[in-house]
Amino acid sequence: MSGRRVGTGGVVRNEVAKLRHLRVGLVAGLMVLGMVALTLLSTLTSAVFADPARRSWDVPLAGLSLAVPLVCPLLLALVASRMVDVEHQGGGWLLNATSGTTPGVLCRAKLVTGAGVVVVVTAVTHLSVWALGRLAGIDAPVPVGLWLGFAAAGLAVNLVVLALHVVLSATVDNQLVALGTGLLGTVVAVFGSGFPAWSAHLTPWGYYSLVAAAGYEGQDLVRTSPSCFSVLVLTVTAAALFGLVTSRFDRQETR
Amino acid sequence: MDTVTTTGLTKSYGRQVVVQGLDLRVPEGCVYGFLGPNGSGKSTTMKMLLSLVRPTAGEVLVLGEPMNRSTRRRQLARIGSLIESPPGYGHLTGGENLRLVQRSLGLDEAQVDRAVRSVRLEEQLDKKVAHYSLGMKQRLGIAMALAREPRLLVLDEPTNGLDPAGIEEIRELLRRLAGRGVTVMVSSHLLGEVDKAADVFGILSAGRLLFQGSREQLFAAAVPDLLIDTSDPHRARAVLDDRVAARVDGGSLRIPGIDDQGTARVVADLVGAGAPVYGVRREEQSLEDVFMDLTRGGRL
């Protein structure tokens, strides 16, 4: 007769196994490379950085604050799309449902797996920027609190965007829709800082402008504080909505 | 004991009734051929048996226990299934796909090995599923269903797209499984594909069960046309007038849907009227003819 049932851990392990050959590692590498390269570029071309007396961590933090919204929305859409599309292509929803793993459970496991990738990307990116900053001659003390807040808030927004894309890719078979949404998200994220703060709260991508640790106001470099409360509200709301939607997936019947 | 029992099983989407009042009885250890034209409701019925689709009315008992949302997870551990197109992650190898199933059901290596041997897929496990032929994908799908060593195997059109050798191989497999005590329910829109393997048939048309029983019962239930050989079929038809729906067919008179007593009366009338009768016979029918007749007319 049949074997013993495995819990959520087994479903997540399966999701990790499915990542093989999906080139998610490559996409993650591109995310790190893209964010670090853009940060480096904006740092080295900054007039503030050119002056050794004014050289501070605010310069790479401003660069990274711009690089994150430029790189993450589209590549997160790609990560989610690659993870979910295999279920559409391989009849995976039905295969798992006939083994007792419903689509909602599968989506939650995909988010956990994707979140692991995003955490690693965030950690490697921030550590790389710190290391390159040191190599580039920034000797000022690291603003640890600000940086950790920025990293944590950015990670939270990335996870919300990833969750949105997991749901979107699962709902719409045509992955061009998901990628198009990611592209649109990039535009909203990049230009979000040019709009009033209230408008940034309207979409998940707008929150990228709320987590910036530093930025330029004209020629002036300004240190900003990530809006941790707003991000917390977004995260809690998104978690509740994700739970609600995936529970609905669990109750949906196949046709 | 019946492995699957349904009572008044019905499914509607809005006003469209897809399956209506099915009372299925699938005996233990048999191969149950679930037949019907495309769109007759076979897949929907199978999905209801697996609780993937919620019935609008009626109930399903599998292995003596109700099959519904609350019992599904436990029940599915002893039901293998292959619904619609064969599953398989194309970017992974056959072996990697099987390991996913092994992990999600907590199976041991030996169970997976036995399933692989059953479908003779040992040599293909290192190949990516994207490079599999349709036949290999079907066999992988069946291996995934068999790995849990199920008591009930539900296969939806498993021979779709297979060549004759592949179809024969699936038939053999079904017979072997039934021989081991596994109840196999297999659907097809082509009788010929499951005819030789099935012991019991259920025939569905437009969501209704037209027939359920053995091959012998199916033949007995379907009345083949009566052919009366006579030298003057036009006169014979005139004699019978409009008492029976007779028509001239070459040198014979063809009378559909007439039983033995009716046959005796017709022959007596013809002889009494002096019409020369030199042969009375039933048209030879294959099971395929019976099936076509049933599903075309929606009747027995």
From TrEMBL, chain A:
Assigned keywords, A-Z: Membrane, Transmembrane, Transmembrane helix
Keyword Membrane attributed: yes
Pfam family, one: ABC2_membrane_4
Domain of life: Bacteria
TM helices/strands, residue ranges: 21-41, 61-80, 111-132, 144-164, 176-198, 229-249
InterPro entries: MFS_trans_sf
Protein name: ABC transporter permease
Lineage of the organism: Bacteria, Bacillati, Actinomycetota, Actinomycetes, Propionibacteriales
UniProtKB/TrEMBL annotation, chain B:
Matches recorded under PROSITE patterns: ABC_TRANSPORTER_1, ABC_TRANSPORTER_2
ABC transporter domain: residues covered: 4-231
UniProt-listed SMART domains: AAA (SM00382)
SUPFAM superfamilies with a match to the protein in the record: P-loop containing nucleoside triphosphate hydrolases
Source taxon at top rank: Bacteria
Gene3D superfamilies: P-loop containing nucleotide triphosphate hydrolases
Alphabetic keyword roster: ATP-binding, Nucleotide-binding, Transport
Entry's transmembrane regions: none
GO molecular function, one term: ATP binding
Protein name as annotated: ATP-binding cassette domain-containing protein
Origin species: Auraticoccus cholistanensis
